[in-house]
Amino acid sequence: MTRRTTALLASCSLLLAAVVAGEGWYLWGASEPTPSAERPVVVGDIQAQSAVDVAATDAAAIFTTSYRTYDEHLKQITALMTPDMAARYRTTSGPIRDRVLASRTDTTTRVAARGVVRATSHEVLALLFLDQRTTTDGGPPSYAARRALVTMVHTDEGWMVDNVQVR
Amino acid sequence: MSSANRWWTALVVVLLVGAVLGGALSWRTHGDRADAAARQERYAAVLAAADAEVTAFVNLRYDRAAESVDAVAAGATGDFRDHYARSARKVIRVLQRNRSLMTGRVVWSGVAEVSPERATVIVATTGTVSNTRTDGAERPRDFRFRVSLVREGGRWLTSDIEFVGSGP
């Protein structure tokens, strides 16, 4: 009788342990889904939106330049970027700097609209419509409507700009 | 009851409590994940609907004018659809008189806002336009759109399309 009871209790324990293990795997073992065409955003609305807001603020800062403060501005905006992006940006900024200083160019940029294209907890693609106002040599302003796809990466320091494509 | 069986019984009780609590937590998590999946799939659905409508909007041909106009109307609803349907004859006349050909494609699109019933999507396109003013030559035309959508009968339909311009 005692042996049969022991066997029964052991079987129940084994079964319940398997159930608990299965529940544990379901609760904590599943990884975040990969973004796809069917599910481009795999994080919550607030998380995605906060990354897009940072992208908008950073892009407005990056594309607002002045010949008066070009070097200081470069230092400030590269702090908003990942090290890779900052290195790429510094490499390409040389010829742009010469042009901006020579033509005494001031550009202000504001974000006209923003949206999330794709989002995971560590990477967000934000689409931004940028309105730019540019003056050169104190002349009349010109206006440009740009579209920018900004890749934001989540780091220990928060969301950082990892890539910008402008069309 | 033997001492060993007392231990086994205690273990069964502990595991049973764990299984019940785990089951309740799994049930709630399952519901949360299903909600999250539905919310995430909504992004894809509104992007697809906006892309399709904007693609129709930037592909207009004078030689298939009625077809072009119908394609836009098919994805539209409300005042926007009514207004578009009312002005369709005029649009067709203008397209044919100017021998207008507009082609385009969506480059990027992103969701600005989304709820179970409404959404706003921004869409960037690239393409060309040719007409009698350009002597038939294709000129590049890039656009920025803000598309408002509503969910009707299980479909996302466009209730408004705005050009997002730039200027002083």
**Structural class category of chain B:** alpha+beta
- The overall strand count of chain A is 5
Uncertain regions of chain A: pLDDT < 50 for 5+ in a row? Answer: none
Specify Rg of chain B, calculated over alpha carbons: 27 Å
Number of strands of chain B: 6
Which blocks of ≥5 consecutive residues of chain B have pLDDT under 50?
A: none
Percent of residues in β-strands of chain A: 25-35%
How are helices and strands ordered from N to C of chain B? Answer: HEHHEEEEE
Cα-atom Rg of chain A, whole angstroms?
A: 26 Å
| Head-to-tail CA distance between termini of chain A | 81 Å
What spatial form of chain A do the alpha-carbon principal axes imply? elongated
The largest sheet of chain B is:
6 strands, antiparallel
Structural write-up:
The complex is a heterodimer of chains A (167) and B (168). Chain A is of the alpha+beta class. Chain A is 45% helix and 32% strand. In chain A, strands 1-2-3-4-5 form a five-stranded antiparallel beta sheet. In chain A, a hairpin with a 5-residue loop joins β3 (123-136) and β4. In chain A, α3 (70-78) packs antiparallel against α4. The longest helix of chain A has 28 residues, at 2-29. The model of chain A has no long low-confidence stretch (mean pLDDT 93). With 168 residues, chain B is α+β, with helices and mostly antiparallel strands. Chain B contains three helices and six strands; from the N terminus they run αβααβββββ. Chain B has helices spanning 3-57, 65-74, 78-97, and strands at 60-61, 101-114, 118-130, 139-140, 143-152, 155-163. In chain B, strands 1, 2, 3, 4, 5 and 6 form a six-stranded antiparallel beta sheet that branches. In chain B, α1 (3-57) runs antiparallel to α2 and α2 (65-74) runs antiparallel to α3 (78-97). The longest helix of chain B has 55 residues, at 3-57. Chain B is rod-shaped, with a radius of gyration of 27 Å. In chain B, 30% of the residues are buried. Chain A binds chain B through residues 2, 5-6, 9-10, 12-13, 16-17, 19-20, 23-24, 26-27, 33, 37-42, 44-45, 52, 112-117, 125-127, 129, 131-133, 141, 143-145, 147, 149, 167, and chain B through 1-2, 4-5, 8-9, 11-12, 15-16, 18-19, 22-23, 25-26, 29, 36-37, 39-41, 43-44, 47, 107-112, 114, 120-122, 124, 126, 142, 144, 146, 164-168.
